[in-house]
Design a protein that fits this description.
The structure holds two protein chains of two kinds.
Chain A lengths: L5 H18 L1 H25 L4 H12 L2 H11 L3 H19 L1 H30 L10 E8 L7 E2 L3 E3 L5 E3 L1 E2 L1 H10 L3 E17 L2 E10 L3 H5 L5 E2 L15 E4 L1 H8 L9 E4 L2 E8 L16 E4 L3 H4 L19 E2 L1 E7 L5 H19 L10 E6 L1 E4 L1 H38 L1 H10 L3 H29 L3 H6 L14 H27 L3 H5 L6 H40 L9 E7 L8 H15 L4 E7 L9 E4 L1 E2 L11 E7 L3 H5 L3 E4 L13 E5 H7 L9 E4 L5 E9 L14 E5 L9 E8 L3 H15 L6 E5 H8 L1 H35 L1 H9 L4 H33 L12 H18 L1 H8 L3 H6 L2
Parallel strand pairs in A: 2-13, 7-12, 9-11, 21-26, 23-25
Antiparallel strand pairs in A: 1-4, 1-14, 1-15, 3-4, 5-14, 6-7, 6-10, 6-14, 8-11, 9-12, 10-11, 17-27, 17-28, 18-27, 19-21, 20-24, 22-25, 23-26, 24-25
Chain B lengths: L4 H26 L3 E2 H11 L8 H14 L2 E7 L5 E7 L1 H26 L6
Antiparallel strand pairs in B: 1-3, 2-3
Helix pairs in contact in B: 1-2, 1-3, 1-4
The chains are: A alpha+beta, B alpha+beta.
């Protein structure tokens, strides 16, 4: 008889009724009024008909129906309006209460806003750096090719990222181009396999203006495998990548299109010059596309691999012949990505590709019997290689934990404030309970208040995070590089802030609300509030404050550790002078300056720059100092034989003749470089003290020779020993390093960083430098202008960010803890006014009272500090790898933090203590 | 202000009759569209003047049934030419009436059986 989904229809009807009664509230009220009025009329008429007096009849009808207010209330409840009305009433009451105590509201909302804002900001950074995926179609189907290579394997020459694994193995993502070609043609287990390479910077000349831009080299099927559709024109296609030089085309990024072409549609077909090679622009990439390497990359031009030998023949090692990298069987450099085929599991594909890799390596290279071929792994490619996750993963988690602690502190403050307020409104609550309100109803009202506070705090926090959003990418990228990520505020961030606010309001409002409704109605309505509950309430507040002090201890210690790390790093001796040195880099296209022509140009630049007024000394280096990158090379001292694999190596830097004077590195034995060290004279090198100690422990290295070079070895004679100088990171102490004059590079040098010793100010000085460069070559842009100090600061960027952020957290923690202590002490004093009055009446002196109150506060803080020290030690041990020059349990930091907290606490409880000491016994005894 | 404690007590005692009241209202309305007062009179009438519904619980029950979709309302003109809200039974309500009737018959059968039990039957 009944339809199967009766309850569904009923539910639908209920929903419709609810919505209608909410929207048409006024009409509903009028209808109820009219309906009841009609009922009364009809009943009255009936009663009159049966003989009643009209007035009597009306009265009787009204009595029978009962109070219209009650009836309407019940009717509203039937339609489900009661909870809405109650919610509205609660909100109005909450707003009124908050307006009446602006100080309370300001502190609660303010501290919550800071806590939630900090968390939202860190979450934004985390989301962009760690979670953002590539803006391609179905990124979860992409797989990145990783290689696990043994120490003595076939991979000898590599250009790309690699990392150490436990057990002596390395992991990398680079393959040789011939191996990639084989993998692609033999591929059966993946939908397709493509290759790409973030190539570094190329000189791009648009309308006569030369600039250096990040380039990505791609295979013909790159766009089809990624599923990226250009917003204008076309992508790189197979025909562009067929043979060497067959595709002189580029696609450009949306940013390049905006900045240099004004988003005009006739950019398609324009010819620009890339490393002095004319290329036609055939397409513009969609705005969110960041290349395949990572979601934070900013490549501006994309060109096919087929153009590599022409536009970007890369000179990597003096011993390499500048052959095309595409036919080079020994250099591992291209990154490979594939898309999984539906129906084939990742594991199957990985196994199949491993077999293919083995076959490819054996057929393209000569593999010795005991050489091991790397093992291939297919890892998730939805974020490309995502290098930032490795660099930033741990620091971001640490920051999130710290920001979480700050929020916890703010929430503890909220809980304490709510507790105090509930205590103050005790009488009101008891009255309500006595009048018949249910405890649940009062609980609901108090929760509404705390939720309102927390949502206001959340809104404030979101606003705060929005305001600082532009500063966030700056935290993780160099000053002279484009920002690491776009600062769009996305839904996940908004949802995060809302969720945190709601959770805060519920969790930290529930405790105080429950305690408030647990009052004994009888005793709290009496005049004196001296019951058992009072003592217990004080304890809850004190426990919370003790926890707050513990949390502050952790945050202050953390801040101290990071600040001291930064200070240590700032004062560590570098081994060279870093002040008053201006740096800039140049990239010389091989096409314009083949081989030794580059050396000649660099020498001309050196001379011309020396002549600029204000310049004291000029030199140049292959790798700038403290830039995070370095070169190394085989180093076989004379007398030792060269092994097949596993030869010793040392760091190397190719430098100008005046390198040692410009950087202030002392020559402790022998000589530095001079004009006599030229392309035609004997190859020489200067080694640093570490190298001398490592390779020539008890003998004089001067005059001895060593062999270097990969496939075309040559010998170099040592002519001098210099002092140790840090090379690529401030944190790393000097390693064995040797320096050679760049003039002696057989194939020239195509990338260099100039270092200019000058006392002149940067801004006014640069134009004269630029003019000097333009005289030598008008098309050579000056890249990355910065001072050596700025370069070092950039290397310490992460430490500095941490020092700044954790100091901010530490200060915030101190302030919140002080607010908490002040609140609790003030409340405690106000509750104990009676007791203090009695004590003073019995003869206690004001100083005694003062000591009593301060002693109570000190006791609370000491307990908190003890509780916090354990957690602080735990934190310190976790971040030990991020510290420098300190032990994790650094006594100075811990000691200072304890003292600081104690002083802050005493300061905060000063005013309540003074108030307590100033109590007049007569007033206090009257105070009930 | 919400209902105080004593009102809740009254409601509790009426809960037992709530189900039956709903059923009676549905039955009354099934015989033809009625306004609130009319429902009251109709129930009185069809019960042979035995049952007088508490006027206080009438309108909340009507609103509840309408909220659940068992009856639908529209404004019309009453006997003495005044505007009144008329309720009629919906398809959902017809089904509901049938279910409630079945339940009542079953329940009363069971209770009858219990009351008929004699000490000898145990």
């Amino acid at each position: 008889m009944s339809s199967p989904f009766g309850w569904v229809w009923s539910g639908v009807a209920r929903l419709r009724s609810r919505v209608r009664s909410m929207i048409q509230r006024g009409r509903l009220e009028a209808e109820m009024e009219a309906e009841l009025a009609h009922h009364l009329e009809a009943r009255t008429a009936d009663l009159i008909r049966t003989g009643c007096e009209p007035g009597d009849a009306a009265r009787r009808a009204r009595i029978e129906l009962g109070s219209p207010l009650m009836r309407k209330e019940n009717m509203r409840a039937s339609v489900g309006l009661r909870w809405i009305d109650e919610l509205a009433a609660d909100l109005r009451y909450a707003v009124r209460m908050l307006r009446k105590s602006p100080g309370f509201t300001a502190i609660a909302v303010g501290s919550l806003a800071l806590g939630i804002g900090a968390n939202t900001a860190i979450f934004t950074v985390a989301q962009h750096m760690l979670l953002d995926r590539l803006d391609v179609s179905h990124p979860e189907q992409l797989r990145m090719f990783y290689l696990n290579e043994p120490r003595d394997g076939v991979v000898e020459d590599m250009w790309g990222w690699w990392d150490d694994l436990p057990g002596g193995e390395h992991v990398s993502t680079s393959l040789t181009y011939p191996v990639y070609e084989q993998l692609r043609s033999q591929n059966k287990s993946l939908a397709d396999v493509m290759a790409f390479k973030p190539y570094g910077r190329m000189t791009v000349t648009i309308r006569g203006q030369a600039e250096a831009m990040e380039a990505e080299m791609v295979s013909g099927n790159y766009y089809s495998v990624l599923g990226v559709r250009p917003q204008l024109g076309r992508g790189i296609q197979e025909s562009d990548d067929e043979e060497e030089g067959s595709g002189p085309v580029v696609t450009i990024s949306d940013r390049l299109w905006t900045q240099h072409f004004g988003r005009s549609p006739d950019v398609i077909g324009k010819v620009i010059s890339v490393n002095a090679t004319p290329m036609t622009v055939v397409g513009v990439n969609p705005p969110g596309f960041t290349g395949a390497y990572s979601a934070q990359g900013t490549p501006d031009i994309f060109l096919p691999f087929s153009m590599q030998p022409i536009a970007a023949p890369q000179e990597l090692d003096a011993s390499w012949s500048s052959s095309s990298l595409l036919t080079n069987k020994n250099l591992w450099w291209v990154l490979v990505m594939g898309r999984i085929k539906p129906g084939v599991s990742s594991a199957t594909a990985e196994a199949s590709q491993n077999v293919a890799l083995n076959a490819a390596v054996r057929s393209t290279m000569t593999v010795k019997n005991d050489s091991q071929i790397p093992r291939l792994l297919l890892r998730d490619g939805s974020r490309g290689q995502n290098p930032d996750a490795d660099d930033f993963g741990k620091p971001i988690y640490v920051l999130m934990v710290l920001a979480g602690l700050v929020l916890l502190l703010a929430c503890a403050n909220l809980a304490n404030l709510l507790l105090a307020r509930a205590g103050a409104r005790q009488r009101e609550t008891s009255t309500r309970l006595a009048l018949g309100a249910g405890r649940g109803r009062i609980l609901r009202q108090m929760m509404t208040e705390s939720l309102l506070l927390s949502l206001l705090g959340g809104a404030g926090g979101l606003l705060l995070a929005f305001v600082v959003r532009d500063a966030l990418p700056r935290l993780v990228s160099n000053l002279w590089a484009p920002p690491a990520f776009s600062t769009n505020f996305s839904w996940p961030i908004f949802a995060f802030a809302v969720a945190v606010s709601i959770a805060t309001g519920i969790i930290f409002g529930l405790g105080p609300a429950l305690q408030a409704t647990r009052v004994q109605v009888n005793s709290s309505l009496k005049d004196s509030g001296q019951t058992v509950t009072h003592r217990r309430r004080g304890l809850a507040g004190k426990t919370i404050v003790t926890l707050q002090v513990a949390l502050s201890m952790v945050l202050v210690v953390g801040a101290g550790l990071f600040v001291r790390t930064l200070m240590q790093l700032g004062h560590v001796p570098l081994g060279f002078r870093s002040h008053n040195l201006l740096l800039f880099s140049v990239e010389l296209p091989e096409k314009l300056y083949p081989k030794l022509a580059s050396t000649t140009l660099l020498q001309r630049l050196e001379e011309r720059l020396k002549a600029v007024p204000g310049v004291q000394m000029v030199t140049l280096t292959r790798d700038p100092l403290i830039s995070g990158s370095a070169s190394n090379s085989t180093f076989i001292p004379e007398g030792q034989s060269r092994k097949a694999e596993g030869n010793p190596s040392a760091l190397v830097n190719r430098v100008g003749a005046h390198f040692f004077e410009t950087f202030g590195i002392p020559i402790v034995a022998g000589r530095g470089f001079g004009a006599s060290d030229s392309q035609t004279s004997r190859k020489v090198a200067v080694v640093n003290e570490s190298l001398a100690k490592t390779f020539y422990p008890k003998v004089n290295p001067i005059g001895r020779t060593f062999e270097t070079g990969g496939h075309h070895p040559y010998t170099i004679q040592i002519v001098g020993v210099c002092g140790d100088a840090k090379y690529y990171r401030v944190r790393k102490s000097a390693e064995p390093t040797y320096y050679t004059p760049y003039a002696q590079q057989d194939d020239g040098m195509h990338g260099a960083t100039f270092a200019i010793a000058t006392k002149m100010e940067g801004q006014a000085f640069l134009p004269s430098l630029r003019d000097a460069i333009r005289e030598v070559d008008p098309n050579l842009p000056m890249l990355d202008v910065r001072t050596q100090d700025e370069q070092i600061a950039a290397n310490l960027r992460q430490e500095r960010i941490f020092a700044i952020l954790t100091s901010g957290f530490g200060v915030l923690a101190l302030v919140l803890a002080c607010v908490g202590i002040y609140g609790v002490m003030a409340y405690s004093v106000s509750q104990r006014t009676n007791e203090i009055g009695i004590r003073m009446a019995l003869g206690a002196r004001p100083e005694r009272v003062l000591r009593m109150v301060l002693g109570e506060a000190t006791w609370m803080v000491l307990m908190g500090e003890c509780a916090g020290i354990g957690a602080a030690l735990g934190l310190a041990r976790t971040i030990a790898s991020m510290l420098y020059g300190l032990k994790p349990w650094d006594p100075a930091t811990f000691g200072l933090s304890s003292v600081l907290l104690l002083l802050a606490a005493l300061g905060a409880s000063g005013y309540p203590a003074w108030r307590a000491a100033a109590v007049q016994p007569i007033e206090a005894l009257r105070h009930e | 202000m919400g209902p105080g404690k004593h009102d809740q007590a009254q409601d509790k005692s009426k809960e037992l009759l709530q189900g039956t009241l709903d059923m009676l209202i549905l039955k009354a309305v099934s015989l033809g569209p009625l306004h609130g007062y009319g429902v009251l009179l109709r129930i009185q009438q069809i019960s042979g003047e035995e049952l007088v519904v508490q006027q206080g619980s009438l309108y909340p029950a009507l609103y509840r049934l309408e909220h659940q979709g068992a009856i639908a309302s529209e404004w019309g003109e009453s006997e003495n030419n005044r505007r009144a809200k008329y309720y009629r039974l919906t398809k959902l309500g017809r089904e509901r009436l049938g279910e409630e009737t079945e339940k009542w018959k079953r329940m009363s059968g069971i209770i009858n059986g219990i009351l008929k039990t004699t000490p000898e039957a145990l």
